[in-house]
C-alpha cells in the first residue's frame, strides 16, 4: 500500500479526478447520496462524476421533481438509484440515515437550506462520528499559485474561539494529508505579521503558532500571524523580512471569522479565476454543502475531493477526524 509521502501531492483538480478514477477501478465508485435531489445543476454535476466513474449516485427526494430536473439538463436516470420521498424534511432525514446505515459513503446537500442540512447532520452526531467541530475546508486551484491551496473556515464556524480554531486546523490537516501533503504549512491569517495588542487575532494566532511549536497541534508547520501576501508570496516575505518555512509557501490558510473567509473565497473565484472544491470535515464520512452560486465544475471538484477524503479515511482510519 502506498504510504503518505510516497507520491507527489495532487496539484490540480484534473489530477485529483484521475486519482479518484484509479481508486474506483480498484474498489468501485463511492456511493454518494444527494439529499433533496430536485436540483438540475447538482444532478448535472453527479452525471459528470458518474461518467468519470468516481461515484455511484443515489438521488433522494420527490421523484417527479428529480425526473423533471434531470430532463432539463438531459441526464438519463437509468443508471441512478432514485428514492422517492416527497417531503423534503423526510428526504433529508432518509439521506442522513443512509449515511448512518452505511448505505452511502458521502452525503451531499441538494435543494435544502444549509441550516436544515446541518441540523439534520448534527442530530445524528454520535452515529456519524462527529466528536467535535464540523468545518468546511475549501481546496483552490489558482492560476498564479504554484500548488493547491486549502482554506478554512469560510462557511460554517462564524467566529471561532481559540479552541475551535485548533479544531479547524486539525480538520484542514486531514484534507491536506489526503492530497498527499505529508507536513502541510499552515498560515494563520491577519493584517500584519507582528503581535499587536490592539488586534486580538494577532495575539491569538501567535498563541496557536506556539502551540504548534510545542506539539499541541501535530502534523503541520504552523506560523502566524501572517498577512496574505507574506503567506503566499516568497518575494513579499523576503521584502518584509519574515523568515520561516511557512512564509511564501503556505498550503493552508486559516481565517479568523466567516466574513473574512467568505470574502477571500469568493474573491479568489471571481477575480483570480480559481477553481475550487469544498468538503465538510469532522465526521467519519465526508459531506458536501456547496454554494448556490458555485462556478462551473466546482460541484464536480467537491465530489472528487470528498471521494478522495473517504478513501484516505478508510486507508488510514486513525487519521479520520
Set out the fold topology.
Layout: H1 13-27, E1 30-35, H2 40-51, E2 55-61, H3 63-72, E3 81-84, H4 88-100, E4 106-109, H5 114-122, E5 135-141, E6 149-152, H6 162-178, E7 185-189, H7 200-213, E8 221-226, H8 228-232, H9 234-240, E9 252-254, H10 258-270, E10 275-281, E11 287-288, H11 298-315
Parallel strand pairs: 1-2, 1-4, 2-3, 4-11, 6-9, 7-8, 7-9
Antiparallel strand pairs: 5-6, 5-10
Helix pairs in contact: 1-11, 2-3, 2-11, 4-5, 6-11
Describe this protein's structure.
- The chain is of the alpha/beta class.
- It has one domain (13-184, 251-319): Isopropylmalate Dehydrogenase.
- Helix content is 41%, strand content 17%.
- The strands form 2 sheets. The chain has a 6-stranded mixed beta sheet with strand order 8-7-9-6-5-10, sandwiched between helices. Strands 3-2-1-4-11 form a 5-stranded parallel beta sheet, with helices on both faces.
- Strand 2 (55-61), helix 3 (63-72) and strand 3 form a beta-alpha-beta unit.
- The chain is globular, with a radius of gyration of 19 Å.
- Mean pLDDT is 93; it is low at 317-321.
Amino acid at each position: 500500500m502506498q504510504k503518505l509521502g510516497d507520491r507527489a501531492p495532487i496539484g490540480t483538480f484534473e489530477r485529483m479526478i484521475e486519482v479518484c478514477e484509479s481508486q474506483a477501478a480498484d474498489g468501485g465508485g463511492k456511493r454518494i447520496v444527494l439529499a433533496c435531489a430536485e436540483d438540475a445543476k447538482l444532478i448535472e454535476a453527479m452525471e459528470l462524476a458518474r461518467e468519470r466513474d468516481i461515484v455511484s449516485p443515489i438521488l433522494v427526494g420527490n421523484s417527479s421533481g428529480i425526473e423533471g430536473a434531470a430532463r432539463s439538463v438531459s441526464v438519463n436516470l437509468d443508471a441512478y438509484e432514485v428514492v422517492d420521498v416527497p417531503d423534503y424534511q423526510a428526504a433529508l432525514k432518509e439521506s442522513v440515515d443512509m449515511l448512518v446505515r452505511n448505505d452511502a459513503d458521502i452525503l451531499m446537500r441538494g435543494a435544502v437550506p444549509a441550516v436544515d442540512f446541518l441540523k439534520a447532520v448534527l442530530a445524528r452526531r454520535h452515529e456519524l462520528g462527529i466528536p467535535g467541530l464540523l468545518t468546511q475546508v475549501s481546496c483552490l486551484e489558482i492560476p498564479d499559485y504554484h500548488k493547491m491551496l486549502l482554506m478554512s473556515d469560510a462557511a460554517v464556524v462564524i467566529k471561532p474561539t481559540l479552541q475551535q480554531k485548533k479544531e479547524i486546523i486539525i480538520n484542514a490537516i486531514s484534507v491536506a494529508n489526503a492530497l498527499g501533503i505529508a507536513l502541510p504549512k499552515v498560515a494563520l491569517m491577519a493584517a500584519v505579521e507582528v503581535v499587536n495588542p490592539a488586534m486580538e487575532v494577532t495575539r491569538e494566532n501567535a498563541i496557536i503558532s506556539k502551540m504548534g511549536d510545542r506539539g499541541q497541534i501535530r502534523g503541520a508547520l504552523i506560523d502566524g500571524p501572517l498577512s496574505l501576501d507574506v503567506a503566499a508570496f516568497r518575494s513579499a516575505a523576503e521584502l518584509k523580512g519574515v523568515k520561516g518555512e511557512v512564509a511564501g509557501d503556505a498550503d493552508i490558510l486559516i481565517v479568523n471569522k466567516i466574513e473574512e473567509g467568505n470574502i477571500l473565497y469568493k474573491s479568489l473565484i471571481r477575480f483570480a479565476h480559481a477553481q475550487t472544491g469544498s468538503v465538510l470535515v469532522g465526521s467519519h464520512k465526508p459531506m458536501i454543502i456547496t454554494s448556490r452560486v458555485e462556478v462551473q465544475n466546482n460541484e464536480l471538484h467537491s465530489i472528487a475531493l470528498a471521494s478522495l477524503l473517504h478513501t484516505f479515511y478508510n486507508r488510514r482510519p486513525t487519521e479520520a477526524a
